[in-house]
Structure formats: C-alpha cells, structure tokens
Amino acid sequence: MTQDINRVVLAYSGGLDTSVILKWLQVTYNCEVVTFTADLGQGEELEPAREKALLLGIKPENIFIEDLRDEFCRDYVFPMFRANALYEGVYLLGTSIARPLISKRQIEIARNVGGDTVSHGATGKGNDQVRFELSYYALEPDIKVIAPWREWDLASRTKLLAFAEEHQIPIAKDKRGEAPFSVDANLLHTSSEGKVLEDPAEEAPNIVYQRTLSPQDAPDKDTVIEIGFEKGDPVSINGEKMGPAAILTALNKYGHDNGIGRLDLVENRFVGMKSRGVYETPGGTILLAAHRALESITLDRGAAHLKDELMPRYAELIYNGFWFSPERELLQGLIDQSQQWVTGAVRLRLYKGNATVVGRESPYSLYSQDYVTFEEDSVYDHRDAEGFIKLNALRLRLARERDCRFED
Predict the structure, then answer these.
(1) What's the total number of domains in the chain?
(2) What is the tens place of the pLDDT at every residue in 85-110?
C-alpha cells in the first residue's frame, strides 16, 4: 500500500461490499473517491447508490450514475451474438460481456476528473478481477489499480459488518444475514453462484431462478414470434422496430413467460478452478436460435463453418477478459464481414423451455428450391455427382490400395 494515490474511480453498486470498499479506500489511502454506477439493466433502483455515496462523503459532482443499456446491447451484446458465442459450448457470457463496458467508462471518467487510479469489488478467486484489470490496462496502460479483496484483511462477512458499523455505513436489515448465494445481473442474464450452489451434485433450489418461470409452470399454450434482423443484429419483433435495449427487454419477457434460458453449469474459470453457476438468459437464448437460423440460409457453407471453428476461441477471449485485445478485434472484423447478408426474419415457437425455429426468410437467401427439390428440375444434372464422388474418393482408394499391398 505504498502507492501514491490521489483520486480513485470506483465501480460502485451501493451494496454492502462496495460501500465498505469506498470507505476503506478513503481510510487506507487518504484519497478522494469518485463513484461510478452503471445501469446495465440489472433491474435495481440506482438512486439509493447516489444517496449512500453522499452519506459517505462523496461530493455530488463525483457521483456518476449512467444508463448504459442501449450501449451495452448495441456495442457489446449484439457484436458477440453475431459470432454465436458460447463458452464451453453452452454459456452465453452474460457476466463476461458486461465488464469491458464498465471498465471503459471507469477509464473515461478517470480521464475526465483527473483520476489516477481505478478500483473494483471483484474477489481474488474469480474471473472478474482479470476482466476488469485487463480492460483497464488495455485502455490506459499506466493506470493504477486497487483490488481491495486482494489487499485487505476483511476476509469474512463478520469483519465486513464490523467495519461498516465502525464507520457508520448503513446496513439494510435484510443484508445482515449471509445471502444463500451471490447474484450478478444485467439485461442479458442473471448469474448465481456460491453457498447453496457449491455442491454440483445438488439441484439448485427454486429461489435461485429470478428471470424465468420453470418450464413446468409455463403456459400450456405456445407463443409464436418473429424477429427481424439487419446485418446480423435484431431490429424488430413481430414487425415493430425497436432500439437495442428494448429488443432484449422484450425477448426477456417472452423467455420468462415460456420458461426459456436456464442453465446449470460447471465451468472452467480462467484463474484455474472449476465453479458451478446457475444462469438465466431468456432473451439471449431466443436470440441465438434465431440468429443461427437466419445464417443457415444467408451464409455460404465455407463461411459458416469457418465461423463455427473460430467461435470457441472468440468466446474464450471474452470469457477470459480480452475484449480489448488485438486478436478479439481481428476476429470481430471477420465476423462482422460475414454478416453483410444476414438480413431477414425468423419465426420461433416458444413453449415450455424451448425456442423452436419454425420459419426463416431473407431477400439474400442462398437457399434454392430449384436445386434442392425432389421433383424434376432443369438446373441440376445428377450425372455430375459421379465425377465429384470419384475425385473425392481418389485419396481414400489410393490409401486403401497401399494398405492392402503391405498387410500381412
């Protein structure tokens, strides 16, 4: 703790942990603290964060609360969905994709207010510390970073509460007891982990699920919706044009009502351990199914398969915190180029946990009924297939002939 710290921009939620961090920074470093609270659609009232920051001595001009929902969807979520990104085959990266935007705004605010340091509330065991700090350094190489969970001795909830009481930090009655699990939420998803979820052999209790009805409780009647796309991004639902955040909000409602988007996952953290998380991504699950359906008729086979080969690497970069890396940006350029013709509409049937594609159309479709029909046609000569097959079989035949010559 020998760094010369003058002004710190803190990623601040207003909860117990970041309120303790705020005061701890003031006490430990004798520095000025600037708070930044991002509205990413987590569904919480954010004005209490302002009130608590004021109560803890933060000047009004040093409190930043910003609605970033549209930017989050437009510049982070949607570019990621153009890639159909899934970490380890299933996880839609809802927490991972939020961190670079928060980090970017922290750095921008630090520049605007003369801050020399940024701070976050991520623990020393998780991925978020990596995501925040890789983003900080990519955007501002000489920035100083304080990660309190790696420095202080407040290693238990009892010590956190004692520190809060000592420094007159208000604690809501429902926050005095230890939460049964931790939750991260934004417009794309909720993530729950820890405590009652730590044993992967035990089924998650129903209280974990906050964004979706259970499939068993979803209506016995299906819902059909149509999502319109332009160059890979969703722009309308059932013919109604909407902004980015409004699109995802509406899809979340459809997903909630039909029990869509639950995931119970044991994943490999970047820091080396396995962890069990329960995710709800209702709108994102629907969006992924629709986007892949539209690509199925608008992408050339080679381009589509190359995208699928690159996707795990792209998803891993986001999961590990490398959103602002040169390699992610290079991959994004390739992905975005592939979306030139991904324009059209997809119909889906939503029913009891499932989002089933039932129709897709595009003015740029490569699908040709003239070629694919089982009826008589005048565009495809079946005899061409013989030479095609023989040429592709040539290396197989040569290899087999060699094997036969040298077999005992």
Answers:
(1) 3
(2) 999 999 999 999 999 999 999 999 99
